[in-house]
Amino acid sequence: MSEVFEGYERQYCELSANLSKKCTAAASLNGEQRKQKLSDIRNGLENAEALIRKMDLEARSLQPNVKTVLLAKLREYKSDLNNLKSEVKRITSGDLNPSARDQLLESGMADALTASADQRSRLMMTTERLNQSSDKIKDSRRTMLETEELGVSILQDLHSQRQALLHANNTLHGVDDNIGKSKRILTNMSRRMSRNKWIVGTIVAVLLIAIALVLYFKLAK
Predict the structure, then answer these.
(1) What is the dihedral of CA 26, 28, 33, 38, to 10 degrees?
(2) Residues 6+ apart with CB under 8 A from 70
(3) Using an 8 Å Cβ cutoff, are 42 and 13 in contact?
């Protein structure tokens, strides 16, 4: 919920309650006192309209789910404001003559004030329900954020595991390369040993033949 909207909302509710009291007081006044009170009430109505416009602008600048809740509140506040305006019109019409004013106070004004009280009661109940809905939205948003954080954490863990697997894979490739090099070295060494064996065998055979020839010629003499 927007703190800015809630600030405007508190101001409006206080102003609305104050205007309702002033309307009740103005109905019992006469002459200049009534005119002064009505002028004060009209100024208050202008301030109330300004607050509703501010709330409307603030509500429309928010996310759709929050905006829907706040606009529903605004409809109740606008209805309450229209009811206050109707009360002012009824009081103003009482300036025609004393009998009309008395009749208004006895019938129409009483009905208007009763309707206003009922309207405010419904407004309070609706506001409470909307606040509960707002709390549910906050809880849902908090859960969504927690789920998002958990998802990010899981993705980070998966990324770390992927990096570890890639590192292990690179290490295995390195080991394979080293094994291949070792195998080639051993093969070359084996070939050299075989070649050296043939060379040594040939040398030994030549030496034996030479020794045999030397002995033969000595014995022949």
Answers:
(1) 20
(2) 1, 2, 5, 55, 58, 59, 62
(3) no
Q: Are 22 and 44 spatial neighbours (Cβ–Cβ below 8 Å)?
A: yes
- Structural tokens at position 132: 């509960």
Closest CA to 12 of 124, 95, 103: 124
Answer for the pair 43, 35: CB distance below 8 angstroms, yes or no: no
| Reported confidence tier of residue 3, pLDDT bands at 50, 70, 90 | confident
Report d(CA 146, CA 152) in Å as an integer.
10
Residue 31 gets the label, from left (phi > 0), alpha (psi -120 to 50) or beta, of left
How crowded is residue 105: how many other Cβ atoms within 10 Å of its Cβ? Answer: 16
Comparing C-alpha atoms, which of 125, 90, 128 is closest to residue 110? 90
- How much is the pTM? 0.46
Q: How many CB atoms lie within 10 A of CB 101?
A: 19
CA atoms within 13 A on the CB side of 37: 21
Cα angle: 155, vertex 160, 164; to 5 degrees: 145
Quote the tokens at residue 17: 């309650």
CA distance 34 to 47: 20
**20 contacts 84 by C-beta, under 8 angstroms:** yes
Terminal alpha carbon distance of the chain: 128
Q: Residue 150 has which token pair?
A: 């958990």
Convert the pLDDT of each residue in 178-190 to its tens digit. Answer: 888 888 888 888 8
